[in-house]
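Lecture 7 notes: from sequence to structure.

We start with a single chain of 162 residues. Read the sequence below before looking at the structure.
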Amino acid sequence: MMNNRGLTLIELMVALVIVVILIGVAGYSLRGRMMGYRIENQVKGMYADLMNARARAMQQNRSHFIQVTAANFQIIEDSDESGANNAGDAVIVTRAWQYPSLVFPVTITMNTRGIIASDLVPPDDTTINFDIGNNAPDYDCIRLFATRIYTGRMEGGNCVVK
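Now the structure, written as C-alpha cells:
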C-alpha cells in the first residue's frame, strides 16, 4: 500500500530556507568577484592606454605626458613640441577612475624614444595602485620602469609584477 501524504509544510519551509541561504551566499561571493574583475578591467585599460601612448610617442616623434590625479588620468601629446606640458598641447585620452588611484598627483613623461620618466622619486620606478577595498583582484597596480610597463598585484606595499 502506498503512502500518499506528500510533503508537510514544515519540510517545504526548511527546504526553502536552505535554498535561500545558498543563493545568498553565492550572490555575496559573486559580488566580490565582480568588484575584483572591475578593478582588473580598470588596471588593464590604463595599461593599454599607457602602451598606446608610448607607441604614439615613438611613431609620431613627440613626447607624451600622463597626468594621474585622484579622479582620473589624462594622456597629453606635446603637439607644440615644446618638450613641456603646457596649454598648447592636445589631450588624447581622459579616463575617470571607477576605483581611485592611491598615487596622485603624478606626471609621467614618455619621450620620443619611448623612455619613461616620472616626477616621483625614484623617477625610473613608478607604481600606480588602486583602492581595492576588501577585494582581491589578480591585478591592482601598474609598475613603470624607464623602458618597461608591467601590471601586478600589491603585496606588502610593493607591486609584484606578474
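The chain has one domain: 9-161. Keep this in mind for problem set 3.
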